Amino acid sequence: MQDIIKENWSEIGVLAVMTNEEIQLFLTAEARATRRSGSSAPTWRCSSTVRVPPNPVDYLRQWTTAEIPTAARDWPTTGNFARMHSTQYDDVWAELAVTGISDPSHEDLLKQLQDLQIESGAIIPLVRPAKVSATSNSIGGFGEATDWDSEFWNIEDWFRIE
Q: Which sign does the torsion angle of CA 95, 83, 37, 123 carry?
């Protein structure tokens, strides 16, 4: 996937230097490690570790300006790795933080925050490796799963096509 991204970016004039790093570099708890997750600041980062729960409020909080990893915050291993700074995002987040899940505006606020992430370039949605799957052409009844569900959410409805 990295080669495809690099080639596509070069077509529009963006120089990309792609590297693969040993995962241990990023998972250390050693605060002085300068390449651990949070303290490294690549312009672009491919990540397949995002797990968003059904109500993504906590995940979206991590993208506020206050969550930008810094030395003063001891380089936390979660947070706003893209260092997105948006007062508009922060304002919408503040509104969401006091809005109950049953409030009719809750879903609209979630969508606004997601759109702001994408519009800012902090997130470029390509594909989520954890959710890419396929089924055999001989299996029927396989329904479309959401990110909230396992791909086996309706396995009781599956059947073999003769």
A: positive
- Ramachandran region of residue 150, left (φ > 0), alpha (ψ -120 to 50) or beta? beta
Q: pLDDT digits over 45-75, tens only?
A: 555 555 556 678 888 888 899 988 887 877 7
From the CA atom positions of the chain, what is the Rg in Å? 19
Among residues 147, 141, 140, 146, the alpha carbon closest in space to that of 162 is found at 140
Residues 14-38 pLDDT 10s:
787 777 666 665 555 554 555 555 5
DSSP 109: H
pTM (2 d.p.): 0.55
Residues with Cβ < 8 Å from 45, sequence gap 6 or more? 81, 82
Q: Rounded to whole angstroms, how far apart are CA atoms 69 and 80?
A: 7
73 touches 31 (CB < 8 A): no
